[in-house]
Amino acid sequence: MAIKMFDGNGAAVEAIRLARPGVIAAYPITPQSSIAEHLADEVAEGKINAEYIRVESEHSAMSMAVGAQLTGVRVATATASVGLALMHEVCGVAAGCRVPIVMPVVNRSLVAPWSLWCDHSDTMAERDTGWLQFYCSTVQEILDLQLCAYRISEHENVMTPSMVCFDGFYLSHSMQRVDTPSDEDAWDFVKPYVRKNMYLDTKDVMFINDLCPTVEHTEMKYQQKVGFDEAAKVAKEVFAEYEERFGRKLQAVETYCLEDAEVAVVTMGSMSGTGKYVVNQLREQGIKAGLLRICMFRPFPAEEIKEALKNIPIIGVVDRSSGLGAAQGPVCSEVKAALSGMDNKVFGYVGGIAGRDISDGSFRKIFGELLDIHAGKADAVTTWFDVRPDAMDMREVETNVNV
Amino acid sequence: MLTYKVQPKSSVSPGINTCQGCMIDVIFRNLLDVMGEDTVLVIPPGCAAQFSGCGPESAVTVPGIQGNLENSAAIAAGIAAGYKHQGNDHTQVVAIAGDGGTVDIGLQSLSGAMERNDNILYICYDNEAYMNTGIQGSSSTPMAAETTTTPAGKLVNNKDLIQIVMAHHVPYAATASVANIPDLRKKLEKAKSVKGCRVLHIMSPCPTGWGYKMEKTVEVAREAMNSGAWVLLEYEGGKVKLGKKPKNLGDVDKYFSMQKRFKGIDDAKKEEIKEHLIARYEYLEKLASI
């Protein structure tokens, strides 16, 4: 073990190097680009013994990843934003063919309008594609979760690919100290890739992913659903083993000052640290505030969330994507479903879109509203908590020449 | 693990549900006969997916994967990279897609594989429209041909796939036709012996989509070559080698009259096509003379 300095992308590359992929197919996209670059460097310098394929699109990157891993090697790729959207079709193939690819995704807003900056709209759009999803809150966690993701995804009862999601720029370009396992220790944990069930081998013939008739298709989807059920159990075991080996606790759900909390926020990703900072401030003032961070979004840890939040009367869920057309953001929807039938009041917040900072002020505002509700002084919240008051005046066409 | 319902003589099942008069099964049988059992197929949705099979049944005894319509070359390149990494330099990775999956939606991934010279054999069987979905026009549909999306005849010429391929400087590429199986086999053998990205473009007329009787496929394909509507050539080491010169270059009367898809054509359009075919052939001759 050694303390190394990595930014988020560097930590993702280090985890990939430690997992010894045989094929790498990567296409550059901001803010993921330095992953594609550094992987190329590592291969050129002989630090990773892999075929590096300089693909012409993310669609081809995922296609190659599927094809290569089906021959029996671990593969690596990474993407962000519209790159993930372009991959979408083939992400479904990876999941349905049970190819346990582990892919870092650097969270960046989806177009339109164009943005280079962070929100979760890209990975939230993939939440039902059949991939496990982990959301990191620190650079250390990118390395830790990615190493664990190989073990969870590749487990014979799971066989489901993983997205290891981390916030663009906030984490991808944030240089932090990372406690890094030695090559040997990491390899002893991750273990060599072993092909299971479906593979392309001329000595053991099968045709993969042909037309599946309706009389069998439901069952194929059910198998995937069981894979997710198993992933929840396997993740617990793998996190426990990781903690034992490397001393860092990982969990599907992190609780912070929740035991006696009267109000709590639910967060995901890099905003969580700021949330905890504000919880500390409020606690110093004698206010019983708490925070729950969802680290594993797929499979959704509904039971753990219910258990952690059951005694907290007022809860605010912060979504970093807009969930357009839905009653609330996607994270809030799931938290509400997990708490259905309980007496808690759950309020949805949407903010931090396209790199807008979710500041300590944002959390103070949110906690303030939740406390007002708890005190009976209000009964609603400002869902879009950081929207500018002049929102509806922007890009307004003052004169329509055609009228 | 694959178990055989009926032991096939080659790598293709004796009973397959391709349309009568379609020669795609002849392409598959010759392809797998030449390439051998140590071959992996990548097949997109389309007519060729009859060979991927349905549910637990496949029509071929070699392994394969059915990908998406546009990523056959990319999946094949990934498979080839996986084998290379494991020291497997013998398994042939073959993508076989129709014209829609190649010249339309699959052109980007094919272009990437050709530029990188990925070690795959890419075969486009060209029936000049989206036949499996019901005869919709593709960018390989020739001018004046009727399809369900070009009901008044296509207004523009088809893309010239082999020239696009040659512009990528691949080590080996060729055109072939179901009307000349010995030539096709020779080109498959050549392709098998070359490393890198190899491309075969095979004309495969479709009785349903082109509108002719099912027993006429070879005759129609032969007439396409006679008129220069289909030109046999090989591209190797940057050199173009033309096949036999068309007997009646530019004279498409007979070729068109054999098919219903050209029934609405007028003389002016026919003249335009004739000029195009002659000009294209003369251009290819110049390339071959370099």
What does it look like?
With 403 residues, chain A is α/β, with parallel strands linked by helices. Chain A has two domains: 2-246, Rossmann fold; 254-374, Rossmann fold, CATH 3.40.50. Chain A has twelve helices and 16 strands. In chain A, strands 5-6-8-7-14 form a five-stranded mixed β-sheet. The mean pLDDT of chain A is 97. With 290 residues, chain B is an alpha/beta fold. Chain B has one domain (24-289): Thiamin diphosphate (ThDP)-binding fold, Pyr/PP domains (Rossmann fold), CATH 3.40.50.970. Helices cover 37% and strands 14% of the residues of chain B. The longest helix of chain B has 23 residues, at 267-289. Chain A binds chain B through residues 22-23, 25, 50-51, 53-57, 59-60, 63-73, 75, 89-90, 93, 97, 200-202, 204-213, 215-216, and chain B through 1-2, 37-40, 42, 45, 49, 52-55, 58, 60-68, 70-71, 73-79, 81-86, 88, 91, 108-109, 111-112, 115-116, 118. Chain B: Keywords: Oxidoreductase, Pyruvate. Chain B: Residues 48-202 form the Thiamine pyrophosphate enzyme TPP-binding domain. Chain B: This is Pyruvate synthase subunit beta. Chain B: One of its GO terms (molecular function) is oxidoreductase activity.
Question: What would you say about this model in short?
Answer:
Chain B: This is Pyruvate synthase subunit beta. The complex is a heterodimer of chains A (403) and B (290). With 403 residues, chain A is an alpha/beta fold.
Q: Which features characterize this protein?
A:
heterodimer; A: 403 residues; alpha/beta; Rossmann fold; 2 domains; 5-stranded mixed beta sheet; 16 strands; 39% helix; globular; B: 290 residues; 8-stranded mixed beta sheet; 8 strands
Compile the SSE list and pairings.
The complex is a heterodimer of chains A (403) and B (290).
Chain A: E1 2-6, H1 8-18, E2 23-26, H2 33-44, E3 51-54, H3 58-69, E4 75-76, E5 79-80, H4 81-96, E6 102-107, H5 121-124, E7 132-135, H6 139-154, E8 162-167, E9 176-180, H7 183-190, E10 207-208, H8 214-246, E11 253-256, E12 263-267, H9 271-284, E13 289-294, E14 296-298, H10 302-309, E15 314-319, H11 330-338, E16 345-350, H12 360-374
Helix pairs in contact in A: 1-2, 1-6, 3-4, 6-8, 9-12, 10-11
Chain B: H1 24-35, E1 39-43, H2 49-52, E2 64-66, H3 72-85, E3 92-98, H4 100-104, H5 107-116, E4 121-126, H6 161-166, E5 172-177, H7 181-193, E6 198-203, H8 207-210, H9 217-227, E7 233-236, E8 239-242, H10 253-257, H11 267-289
Parallel strand pairs in B: 1-2, 1-3, 3-4, 4-6, 5-6
Antiparallel strand pairs in B: 5-7, 7-8
Helix pairs in contact in B: 1-7, 3-5
